[in-house]
Write a structure and sequence with these properties.
The protein is of the alpha/beta class. It contains 11 helices and 16 strands.
Length: about 350
């Protein structure tokens, strides 16, 4: 391209950018009108089902060269700006900053949101239940390590709903300020250690492994300690000024973590690609759990996960946390819930939400 052609192309881009600003501002004026309606009817500004519908419309209209990943990244920030124009948003998450939970929150709520790191999962539930943050983000399941029991237990204590999920591809980095041959100690949290143990044994045999509370704390310790490294996300390396000594050191390439987005209420309509979670307990007698599960099977509902947790204060009794395909408002769901409720000591629908598209942690 000649210098003249380059100048013309840049002028065309500048003109398009001016049009984009005008169109975005027009879009946001409609958003503000919708926000006024939501405020009058006490609806939350975050509408996961509607956002997924917008993305689906964009993908149907897209002819490239933008990919689905590009469009999702662009509209993540447009959605974030829109929500904050309706009402400034505060999102609490399991901290500290630069953890994978922080990355998951950023993936869903964008850069325009205020983030509040909290020290424990119950703290996230508590702050969301008391209205100190609009939404909470907590891990619920890792494809390698299994369920996060602290999250499941908190649902029995706090009256919150699941309104969305975030599925994040997890990639661990070995980060340090020294070359690999000088590393004598590696800081890591127990979950990350479990996901990278084979790599460490093969590549850093004999190195001292020190467990800490989070991957972000591991990065901070590595930054402060001579001849040390950490297993941490790329985001933590950036925050703490560390180099990536070895990239993507997890033992399994298919390593994902799911996170829940929590709020006091759930108003998601059915989308046709939903999941639902319930929490219930049954009488301590033979066949009680089987009778409940059979009612859902009879209604054609696919159970995707079931976890049992001890019922606090009642030895040898349990609560069950179950996820299913489908939406709680669908007729077969309603029939199944009507049938199983008398068989349960208690039953709580924790929410229905659109299934997540896997994002990649950076």
């Amino acid at each position: 391209m000649s210098a003249e052609g380059l100048s013309e192309a840049r002028q065309a881009i500048d003109a398009i950018d001016r049009q984009l600003v005008q169109l975005l501002n027009e879009r946001m004026r409609h958003v503000q009108r919708i926000g006024a309606v939501k405020a009058y009817s006490a609806q939350g500004v975050y509408a996961p089902a509607r956002e997924e519908q917008v993305i689906a419309n964009l993908l149907a209209a897209n002819a490239g060269p933008l990919t689905e990943r590009h469009l999702r990244a662009i509209w993540r920030e447009i959605f974030a700006a829109a929500r904050n124009l309706e009402e400034p948003q505060r999102v609490g998450y399991l901290g500290p900053a630069a953890t994978f939970t922080h990355q998951a929150a950023l993936e869903r709520f964008g850069a325009a949101t205020e983030y509040v790191p909290l020290p424990t999962i119950p703290d996230v539930f508590r702050e969301a239940a008391q209205g100190h943050v609009h939404y909470g983000v907590v891990p619920v399941e890792n494809s390698t390590e299994g369920s996060v029991h602290e999250t499941l237990d908190a649902f029995a204590e706090f009256d919150l709903r699941v309104i969305a999920e975030i599925a994040l591809g997890i990639h661990h980095q070995l980060v340090a300020r020294v070359p690999r041959e000088r590393i004598r100690r590696v800081f890591t949290n127990p979950v990350a250690l479990g996901q990278c143990r084979r790599w460490l044994a093969a590549n850093l045999p004999g190195v001292e492994l020190v467990t800490v509370v989070s991957t972000a704390r591991a990065a901070a310790q590595a930054a402060e300690t001579p001849d040390s490294a950490a297993i941490a996300p790329r985001l933590a390396a950036e925050v703490y000024g560390l180099d990536i000594v070895a990239a993507d050191i997890e033992d399994l390439a298919a390593n994902y973590t799911r996170f829940y987005v929590l709020a006091p209420t759930n108003n998601n309509p059915p989308t046709g690609r939903d999941k639902t979670a319930i929490l219930f307990s049954v009488r301590h007698e033979v066949g009680a759990l089987s009778a409940v599960v059979q009612q859902f099977a009879a209604a054609g509902i696919n159970l995707t996960s079931i976890q049992s947790r001890p019922l606090r204060g009642r030895p040898w009794e349990y609560i069950f946390f179950v996820e299913f395909e489908g939406h709680a408002a669908e007729p077969n769901w309603q029939r199944a819930l009507t049938a199983v409720t008398p068989r349960c000591l208690f039953l709580k629908v924790l929410g229905s939400w659109p299934r997540a598209v896997v994002a990649t942690a950076v």
